Amino acid sequence: MALTTTQFQSEVLAWYDQHGRKNLPWQQNIGAYSVWVSEIMLQQTRVNTVIPYYRRFMQRFADVRELASASADDVLHHWTGLGYYARARNLHKTAKIVTDQYDGNFPDDLDALNALPGIGRSTAGAIRSIAFQLPAAILDGNVKRVLARYAAIDGWPGSSGPLKKLWAVAEDLAPQARTADFSQAMMDLGATLCTADPDCQRCPVKPACKAFAEENPRVYPGKKPKKKLPVKHSCFLMLRNQRGEFLLQRNPPVGLWGGLWVFPQCESPDLIDETCAKLGVSAIGADVLAVERHTFSHFHLDYRPVRIQAEHYRPHILGEGSEHCWYDPQSPSNLGMPAPVVALFARQ
């Protein structure tokens, strides 16, 4: 049974009124700032993981001006553990642009929103439809799954052909009214019913779903083509001075773990002495620990922590503006660090 666009909207909204999620923290006191922060955090990250991070982030950075005026270290510190740190760096950049160029008020125009760092087409649609209650389509991961099944769109949604078809369906179904509820309803459908293991019997648009009619909803959406991830190797040099402080260095602002504070590194244990010498550190002994693995989207990092007692070091590397610092885990400062570094400190 086919549904008209109006019927589809009515069925989805009626389901949302009865079953939709309405108590998520970013659904309270809705504004462009809260929608934006939550949407960026929810990229590549599950709701239950995001909730505590969102609450801490909003407690520290109550509005876009406060975020804009914060240091990069403070922003990255409050993002530590969420991963995909370019999201945090782009949040900081966008906060400054909105503060400086838009007087602290987000634009409601899709093109203007989409031009801001880190805000793509779907996030722009979410801000416009939810915060400003103006017509706009969204297409996050959950909505892609719903629409791929509803319209039986073959292929991996990350490729251009299927993505173009999905956007056409999303824009056709986007309503002129109740835009906030409809956007949230579509995300909720994908998050609670139209999951990897779909609960089709409870779906409000089941009668018109092509994948359900074909009796193969799990075929959609198509899977991302698999490829074997390469493995890179590194030693994390946990250089500790007599005060119990560890030497950290800040990564360049772009690239892997951009702007985060990490342990000095070398590719193999054979290079430990040479690396310490370049840092101006006299190392007494090296306790080489077992290899651990951290997986990125495009490679595995096998890292070997190495505990080293540092006796002497050149003080000039720690001068004003230095990219190095001595960090005391017993009296931590607000530095952004990647999850493996945080985990190693937690085990000290």
Commentary on this structure:
The structure is a single chain. With 348 residues, this protein is of the alpha+beta class. It contains 14 helices and eight strands. Strands 1, 4, 5, 6 and 7 form a five-stranded mixed sheet that branches. Strands 3-2-8 form a three-stranded antiparallel sheet, with no helix packed on it. A hairpin with a 4-residue loop joins strand 6 (292-295) and strand 7. Helix 2 packs across helix 3 (47-60) and helix 2 (32-42) packs antiparallel against helix 8. It is elongated, with a radius of gyration of 24 Å. The model has no long low-confidence stretch (mean pLDDT 93).
Key features of this structure:
14 helices; 348 residues; alpha+beta; 42% helix
**Percent of residues in beta strands?**
5-15%
Can you tell me the residue ranges where pLDDT is under 50 for at least 5 consecutive residues? Answer: none
Query: If helices are DSSP runs of H or I spanning 4 or more residues, what is the number of helices?
Result: 14
Biggest sheet architecture? 5 strands, mixed
Q: Helix fraction?
A: 40-55%
State the end-to-end CA separation: 62 Å
Please give the radius of gyration in angstroms: 24 Å
Count the E strands: 8
Describe the global form.
Answer: elongated
H/E series? HHHHHHHHHHHHEEEEHEEEEH
- Class of secondary structure makeup: alpha+beta
Mean pLDDT across the residues is 93
